[in-house]
Amino acid sequence: MGDFLRLKNRLLAKMSTAIPFVGKILTALYHPSERKGEVPWTVVVKRLRECSVSIVTTAGVHRKDQTPFDMKDPNGDPSLRIIDGVASVGELMITHDYYDHRDADKDINIVFPIERLREFAEDGIIKAVADIHFSYMGHIVGPHIRTLTDVTAPEAARRLKSEGVDIALLTPG
Amino acid sequence: MKPPRTVYLRWPFGHPLGEPFNVPQQQAVLIEAFKNLYSIDVPGTIVDLPFKWRREVYDRYHADELRAL
C-alpha cells in the first residue's frame, strides 16, 4: 500500500509541473493550515554587505549521509535536517514525493541556491553564507502539523538566532 | 505560514529559482528577493515578480545594484 501511495504522489507531482492546469486544481483543493496571530516582522537594520544568509527550505533537501525524509507516512515527515554551510552540492540530495524535483536533482540551486549565495559572498554582496541551513519536506498534514509548529520549526528559529544569522531565505519545493 | 516578505513567481512547481544551470536567472530571483527585503515595509506583503520564465532577458540584472542596500 505504501509503495502504491508513493507512486500516486509522484505521478500527481509530475502532472502538476507538466500540466499547469492540473497544478492549479490541486492547489485550489489544498487548504493550508493557518495559525492565528500577526505576521512576524523584524526591521532590517544592517546593510546587506554586513549580513549572513541562511537558507530555510521545504524542498526536502538533505545530505546524502542523513536519514531521508519518511515518504511512507501519508501525513508527511515534520522532522528537520540541518545542513552545514560548507556542504558541496554533490553531497546533497532530495527526498520528497510531492513535487517533481527531476530538474532540482540536476541542479539543486533551483530550490537550494547555495552556490549563488557563495558567489554573492565572494563578491562582497553579502557578508557570508551562514554556517548552517535548514530543510523540511513541504507536505506535512494531520497530527504532524503540531510537531512542526511546536517543535521542529521553533528549533530552526532558535538555531538561527543562536548562530547570529541575519537573513533567512525561505524557498519552497 | 505567514512569511513577512515574499516574492512570487508564476513558474512551474519545483522551480522557485528557475531552470537548472541558468545562473543569470537564479541570480535575478535572488537580486529581487534581496531588494524586496529592504523595500517591503508592510508585514505579509507578496510581490509578484514579472519574470517571463524563458522569455526574460536575465543578463540585465546585476548583483552590483545590491551594493547600495
How is the topology of this model organized?
The complex is a heterodimer of chains A (173) and B (69).
Chain A: H1 2-18, H2 20-29, E1 52-57, E2 61-63, E3 81-84, E4 92-94, H3 102-106, H4 114-122, E5 128-129, E6 132-135, H5 144-162, E7 167-171
Parallel strand pairs in A: 1-5, 1-6, 1-7
Antiparallel strand pairs in A: 2-4, 3-6
Chain B: E1 5-8, H1 23-39, E2 45-48
Give a short overview.
The complex is a heterodimer of chains A (173) and B (69). With 173 residues, chain A is an alpha/beta fold.
Characterize the structure shown.
The complex is a heterodimer of chains A (173) and B (69). Chain A is globular. Chain A contains five helices and seven strands. Chain A has helices at 2-18, 20-29, 102-106, 114-122, 144-162; strands spanning 52-57, 61-63, 81-84, 92-94, 128-129, 132-135, 167-171. With 173 residues, chain A is an alpha/beta fold. In chain A, the strands form two sheets. In chain A, strands 1, 3, 5, 6 and 7 form a five-stranded mixed beta sheet that branches. In chain A, strands 2-4 form a two-stranded antiparallel sheet. In chain B, helix 1 links the parallel strand 1 (5-8) and strand 2 (45-48). With 69 residues, chain B is of the alpha+beta class. The termini of chain B are far apart. Chain B contains one helix and two strands. At the A-B interface, helix 1, helix 3, helix 4 and strand 7 of A face helix 1 of B.
